[in-house]
Design a protein that fits this description.
- The structure is a homodimer.
- By secondary structure, chain A is mostly helical.
- Chain A has one domain: Tetracycline Repressor, domain 2 (Orthogonal Bundle), CATH 1.10.357.
- In chain A, α1 crosses α2, α1 packs across α4 and α5 packs antiparallel against α9.
- The radius of gyration of chain A is 19 Å and the shape is elongated.
């Protein structure tokens, strides 16, 4: 007899732990056995929940983005800061989270893009979609900053958002190489204070 | 009886093909069997050449960087261009190479940083060293550009080099998500023409 509640709980638990495991060990480095052992799900029942490891990874990417965006929105809703300060605080919070984990995990999207962006069409499509969700939100903030003359207007908000994403994600790779977030943090500051900010005068 | 020439050739061939395979499939996604089959080396003889897969990957990272730096140096030696144009041409050449491969391979260093930067201390150390080799060269160019008043001097060449690396590597991740190099190319242009260039007047 089907037990939908329990199934749904296991499914969520697989995704939740999958986020941690894939962030830490990568796609190919995370065996299904490790996932199932962690969630204490009997071997063989994985395919009751997901068609394939690839579908599982795609759902993990979606869930990871949803969590980050919810964190982002919660902050934005309660903040009266100017756009650049908002962006700085959101990203500074993420740097602190990376540091709390020893700077070795990084961003799941960046990790998955590097490892399987070129080989999994399904995950690539989901990454494109989640990147668009993030981008719409950050473009709104950048446009607001442009209106307030805080952010430079000689470049479009959409292309500023793209460079921002690239610099941030590359900074995370650098953090993993360095084993600390100093360069990532300095890059964020340079981006916000020198490159994006409307020059005074 | 040892046959050093043949051994050396096989060793080089393993590294050469290893660069291609690891760039395409990642560290965990590239099984030793695939590598040995590609180079037609009998199973079991891998450990005559390398202590471990990790050491193999570390040597691959070194060899990859040496190849890129040689390409970089060859161009710089014969060029009379100004520093920003030199940087643009070197990186535009790399974008064309990515495009020729269908934009799904990316940068081996970025891929390895994302996948095993947090787990392999040996590879992380080699990545730090190779990044320093690249950085010394690009800092020279950036300092030359600062002297010529082509590149902004309100930020140090070393930190500009760091942001450059981050934006470039993140741009490659974006290329893998997009399946094309448009955003990577635009990021490079924005970095060189807007962010690094000394403002006119």
């Amino acid at each position: 007899m089907p037990r939908p509640r329990r199934s749904e709980h296991t499914r969520e638990s697989l995704i939740e732990h999958g986020i941690e495991l894939l962030s830490e060990h990568g796609y190919h480095g995370t065996g299904l056995k490790l996932i199932l052992d962690t969630v204490k799900v009997p071997k063989g029942s994985f395919y009751n929940y997901f068609d394939s490891k690839e579908q599982f990874a795609a759902e993990i990417i979606e869930a990871y983005t949803a969590t980050l965006m919810a964190q982002f929105e919660r902050y934005l809703e309660t903040s009266n800061d100017d756009p650049l300060t908002m962006i700085r605080k959101v990203y500074e919070t993420m740097i602190k989270q990376f540091e709390a984990q020893g700077c070795h995990k990084g961003c799941l999207i960046g990790n998955m893009a590097a490892e399987i962006g070129g080989s999994s069409e399904r995950c690539r499509t989901v990454m494109q979609e989640t990147l668009e969700i993030w981008k719409r939100r950050i473009v709104e903030l950048l446009e607001l900053g442009q209106k307030k003359k805080q952010i430079r207007s000689d470049l479009g908000a959409s292309e500023l958002a793209d460079v921002f994403w690239n610099t941030w994600e590359g900074g995370i790779l650098r953090m993993k190489i360095d084993g600390n977030a100093a360069s990532l943090r300095r890059s964020l500051d340079i981006l916000l204070d020198y490159f994006l900010r409307e020059p005074a005068g």
